[in-house]
Amino acid sequence: MTDLYAGIEQNNFVVVGRAGIDFFTDAGVAAEDADRVTVGLGGSSANIAAGICKLGGQAALVTRVSDDSVGSYCVGQLKRYGVATDYVTPVGGEYRNSLAFYESRVEGHRNVIYRNGAADFQMTDDDVAAVDYSRFGALITAGTVFAAEPSRSATFKAFELAKAAGLPIIFDVDYRPYSWPSTAVAQEVLSKAAAQSDMIVGNDEEFGFIAGGFDKGLAKARALSATVPLIVYKMGEKGALTFSDGAEIATGIYPVEALKPTGAGDSFMAGVMTSLADGHNLKTSLLRGSACASITVSRPGCAPAMADRATLEEFLSAHPGPTAA
């Protein structure tokens, strides 16, 4: 049987999913008032991988990027953050890297993501079969990778190959309706992915979606915990409920003055993974993940905003502490 914690303790992750380019406005500036934007690395899986590396772990990304200047930018940024790009493969033709344009503000925040003909959806079985899974301790992916073929089938193939190599599967539900052909397909595919995972992270809306109703989300998370070793049920400002070994752990958040809402989930994942790998217990690791999320939403960008070790420790020492669970 796969040992989730033993895999995480290796602090070396293979992350499957997209890298994208982000454009974001200056603090407090609406899109229509912007006369300049800043560019940064984005994409759920790329953010998680970058966050892990910034916090002292190791990560390699498996994806496809466009064979153009935007794809080159994404690869260059991954390397800058220390993410291994051995399994990042260019694809030509009309396929393009995803692009996000968002405002660095909370009130009235808008985030537009362009994914038509997305390069990352062209990841194939051959791409994931080329990975040497024995090099890694665990596989991480986010739900957007399942939204289209051939990426969907390739990721399930990666699950199969990773499990055969003894790696646990860590799944961030990350449901984005705009990427999917229908809600019915999304519900079926994300449920299938969850059933094959050793750890599931999602918010109350995402678990509710899988369950077929928002009010059923918590019950769904509890039910899944009977067969899934670790489930994190996030509730925004109310913190999180974590189900592990028959126990429920409630954790709060670290209040900050948020600059924007994007990037929190990716940084939470990176913080939890590296904290567990560094020997912290589960509750402490969840709180450190929450601190990473708070740091990210208080700064511009996604990958650029994520904490490194020094930033995280400084934040924890200076902050009065998390809210009550």
Topology summary:
Blueprint: H1 4-9, E1 12-16, E2 20-24, E3 38-42, H2 44-54, E4 58-66, H3 69-81, E5 84-91, E6 99-102, E7 111-114, H4 125-129, E8 138-142, H5 151-164, E9 169-172, H6 183-195, E10 199-203, H7 204-211, H8 217-224, E11 230-234, E12 240-244, E13 247-251, H9 264-277, H10 282-297, H11 309-318
Parallel strand pairs: 1-4, 1-8, 2-6, 4-5, 8-9, 9-10, 10-11
Antiparallel strand pairs: 2-3, 6-7, 11-12, 12-13
Helix pairs in contact: 2-9, 7-8, 9-10, 10-11
Structure description:
It contains 11 helices and 13 strands. The protein has a single domain, classed as Ribokinase (UDP-N-acetylmuramoyl-L-alanine:D-glutamate ligase, 3-Layer(aba) Sandwich). The two termini are 32 Å apart. The longest helix is centred in the C-terminal third of the chain and has 16 residues, at 282-297. By secondary structure, the chain is of the alpha/beta class. It has helices at residues 4-9, 44-54, 69-81, 125-129, 151-164, 183-195, 204-211, 217-224, 264-277, 282-297, 309-318; strands spanning 12-16, 20-24, 38-42, 58-66, 84-91, 99-102, 111-114, 138-142, 169-172, 199-203, 230-234, 240-244, 247-251. Helix 2 runs parallel beside helix 9 (264-277), helix 9 (264-277) runs antiparallel to helix 10 and helix 10 (282-297) packs across helix 11 (309-318). The mean pLDDT is 96. The strands form 2 sheets. It has a 9-stranded mixed beta sheet, with helices on both faces.
